[in-house]
């Protein structure tokens, strides 16, 4: 199974188009959206190409391949535009017999406030807009960064899970972080 991760699109149509193009060319089985999909939020500037309804239309074309969780900028009104569910605060994905992937946005659960996890489990979240792929204690903390508002001096980025490796990549193909499951 190959997974593609994106977070914090914040309604930017150009960032969404780049994300979809990369998702399609990656050959990933699923597109995992870690929240803040349509709305830019009151603390962020209006992003380039801000067009939440067009972003929803584009993402809806891939609804059967999307697993999404709610971000702190997502609302029930946003859900009305989307044909895939995105109002869950978290979701679990079974990676194998011993490892789970906990998907969340990061504003509630994150590396500092983890749900009950087993040794080797992964918590994947966005929210900080800063890419991370590393063991912290007994769990893996994974953040694909942001496709629209990267922070910490990092470029826009996304994530991949391929052959037991979690990687954070730039749209130019540069590897920012990597950890083995």
Automatic annotation (TrEMBL):
MF term (GO), any: hydrolase activity
EC number of the protein: 3.1.4.-
Class of enzymatic activity (EC top level): hydrolase
Coiled coil feature spans: none
Domain Calcineurin-like phosphoesterase: 1-161
Co-factor requirement: a divalent metal cation
Alphabetical keyword list: Metal-binding
InterPro entries according to UniProt: Calcineurin-like_PHP_lpxH, Metallo-depent_PP-like, MPP_YfcE, Phosphodiesterase_MJ0936/Vps29
CDD domains in alphabetical order: MPP_YfcE
Annotated family: Belongs to the metallophosphoesterase superfamily. YfcE family.
Designated name of the protein: Phosphoesterase
Organism from which the protein derives: Vibrio albus
